[in-house]
Automatic annotation (TrEMBL):
<feature type="domain" description="Myb-like">
    <location>
        <begin position="62"/>
        <end position="112"/>
    </location>
</feature>
<dbReference type="GO" id="GO:0005634">
    <property type="term" value="C:nucleus"/>
</dbReference>
<protein>
    <submittedName>
        <fullName>Uncharacterized protein</fullName>
    </submittedName>
</protein>
<dbReference type="Pfam" id="PF00249">
    <property type="entry name" value="Myb_DNA-binding"/>
</dbReference>
<feature type="domain" description="Myb-like">
    <location>
        <begin position="9"/>
        <end position="61"/>
    </location>
</feature>
<dbReference type="InterPro" id="IPR009057">
    <property type="entry name" value="Homeodomain-like_sf"/>
</dbReference>
<keyword id="KW-0238">DNA-binding</keyword>
<dbReference type="InterPro" id="IPR017930">
    <property type="entry name" value="Myb_dom"/>
</dbReference>
<dbReference type="InterPro" id="IPR015495">
    <property type="entry name" value="Myb_TF_plants"/>
</dbReference>
<dbReference type="InterPro" id="IPR001005">
    <property type="entry name" value="SANT/Myb"/>
</dbReference>
<keyword id="KW-0539">Nucleus</keyword>
<keyword id="KW-0677">Repeat</keyword>
<dbReference type="GO" id="GO:0003677">
    <property type="term" value="F:DNA binding"/>
</dbReference>
<feature type="domain" description="HTH myb-type">
    <location>
        <begin position="9"/>
        <end position="65"/>
    </location>
</feature>
<feature type="domain" description="HTH myb-type">
    <location>
        <begin position="66"/>
        <end position="116"/>
    </location>
</feature>
Amino acid sequence: MGRAPCCDKNGLKKGPWTPEEDLKLIDYIKKHGHGSWRTLPKNAGLDRCGKSCRLRWTNYLRPDIKRGRFSFEEEETIIQLHSVLGNKWSAIAARLSGRTDNEIKNYWNTHIRKRLLRMGIDPITHSPRIDLLDLSSLLNSSLYNTSQLNVSTLLGIQSGVNPELLRLATTLLSSQCQNQNQNQNPEFSSFPQNLQENQLYNPKFEDLQTEVQEHPVCTTSTRPCDTFLYETKIMKTNVEQYQSNPTFNLCCQSLQSTMWQDNVVPEELRGKFIPTTDQSSLIDSLFDVPSVLSTPSSSPTPLNSFSTYINSSTTEDEKDSFCSNIFKFEIPDALDTNDFLY
DNA sequence: AATGTGTTCAACCGCAGACTT
DNA sequence: AAAGTCTGCGGTTGAACACAT
């Protein structure tokens, strides 16, 4: 048979610890070490269960705990580790000296998670939340008028997009402009499908796939932990494939003009980087990831990119503000987006 | 000043795997 | 081998606090 029960839960104190209890616990562990948590409360004269003592010690009383606000570097580290490890708070805490898993978990849920959501980033997958895009403006944009292009297919994004929303978008596309562009450009009409096939089978991605598969797997995610960087690489590679396509060039110019016209880029920032008709620069801009997300601060940054501005920001608020604008999606009144959110 | 609302975070709960008997 | 405990972990809660009206 097994051991005797850890503790009799009846009558044991719960709730916040008093300074006296803290002192008792600290004194005991200083003298004897914690040893068996099961027997500790009795030996230390505490009316608590061992589990409660262990939690109090590891999360609050341990002398090597670093208290106070998280630094920017710590925050960036947490985001990077989370993109690889998922909600493995203890594993993340092990790489941040002085911080407990509980503290990191709380900080993630109260600060980082909300910030990512404000930026339109899914905090679980670290991918852009395309399901929050303003479909109506996208569908009516000059991009659409030029190419009758399925937006999600253009971006090479499928994961993270609610299928219902995509279906709705597709329905809208086909019903609104069924006759408009059908014969406009036969070459381009096969473009989306080709792009999709490329994403699935392109041998160029094999090394990236391997790269990701070598990482630990995100157990809390509903799909393998393909990080934001990985997806960004794929998207970028996908689009680069079509740079030689003249119709795609048109499309890029159209998209860029739409971004400017529709206030995707905040007014005050338009002077910070120069509008360009060069597709590669545009693509870099579209797929560049702000450093606060996943890019190590030491990584090289394209000059003509959003992150150039972000990295030169002086305060966290500025970054947040800028990123919020970049990812600010207006939800059409007629569309109840709650129905589409995971 | 009173009340309502939002935020924070210490502490609890329940589960799973390791361990003991 | 089986039954039960121990330990660590991640998710969740709710009291305390901050801020807005």
